[in-house]
Amino acid sequence: MPEGHVIHRLARRYGASFAGRPVVAESPQGRFADGAVLLDGQTPAGAEAHGKHLFVEFPAGWLHVHLGLYGKVAWGEPPVPAPVGQIRLRLANTTAYADLRGPTVCEVLTPGEKDVLHARLGPDPLRPAEDGQRARDAIARSRQPIATLLMDQKVISGVGNIYRAEVLFRHRLDPLLPGRDLTDEQWKAIWDDLVVLMADGVAGGRIDTVRPEHLPEAMGRPPREDAHGGEVYVYRRAGLPCLVCGTEVRTGTVQARNLFWCPTCQGRA
To answer: Fewer Cβ atoms within 10 A, N terminus or C terminus of the chain?
Structure first.
């Protein structure tokens, strides 16, 4: 499932491609036919993201998309080709088109419905008005491991498996530390780090979490080769030596998701 920086990049592209110009909207698959009728011929005002949720503003309402595990968007320029495959929603204008396939959610919301959805989500490090305090309050009340809480979109939005593993490593935190045992200082360091790391992800289109002294050129090691891209400390590095201490990186399962950590760097204090 895409992490939050991917959805913010997608919102930027939808805004740049479609805001201020009328669009043709259609649902070749047919599963969003009623929604496409509402949006067809309208002029989007812009787009935004909250965590893993994408919103595009139309006069008729807000297009809300959650890609889930299988959703993808393919982009192109005119001439717009005949639809191939299961396209849930196609938006097109004179300069671009976007084909949405396989989302978990594709719907049109009223402003009130959109507000209700925002209220259910935790603060997003990529939304400028957020300060992370609501997440801190929820974590401080919880006995659940911090590794679980960071993946709970009702606690904090946009953090996925990669950012979760990496930010815990960067701050030498035991993934199984109960949320209520996390200090205010530790939480502030996590939040501030996520703000920077995820903004870098939006800018560069990939997740890089390794500090300069641990980059391949600084350590004389080969660059990481992985479909997820980016230089990381522990994510999908199980069985390899930790870049900081040399201990073998471990993996386990927490809430049915793979977790990666270094038992030496992230030992309980």
So the answer is: C
> Phi and psi (nearest 5°) for 180?
-65, -15
CATH number reported for the structural domain that contains residue 106 in this entry = 3.20.190.10
- Residue 234's contacts (CB-CB under 8 Å, 6 or more residues apart) are 165, 166, 169, 242, 249, 260, 261, 262
Separation of alpha carbons 126 and 123, rounded Å: 9
Catalytic residues: 2-3, 52, 257
* Coil, strand or helix at 268: coil
Q: Do 59 and 137 belong together in one domain?
A: no
Distance CA 25, CA 80 (A): 12
Q: Which two tokens stand for residue 160?
A: 């996925």
Q: Please state the pTM of the whole predicted model.
A: 0.94
> pLDDT for 167-179, tens place per residue?
999 999 999 999 9
By the 10 Å C-beta count (0-12 exposed, 13-18 middle, 19+ buried), 217 is classed as exposed
Helices and strands (H and E) in the chain: how many: 8, 10
Of 38, 47, 41, 39, residue with least CA distance to 19: 47
Say what percent of the chain tops pLDDT 70: 99
Q: What is the pLDDT of residue 257?
A: 86
**Sign of the four-CA dihedral 106, 110, 112, 114:** positive
Its domain, for residue 48, covers: 4-120
Q: How confident is the model over 58-114, as pLDDT tens digits? A: 999 999 999 999 999 999 999 999 999 999 999 999 999 999 999 999 999 999 999
Task: Tell me how many domains the chain contains.
Answer: 2
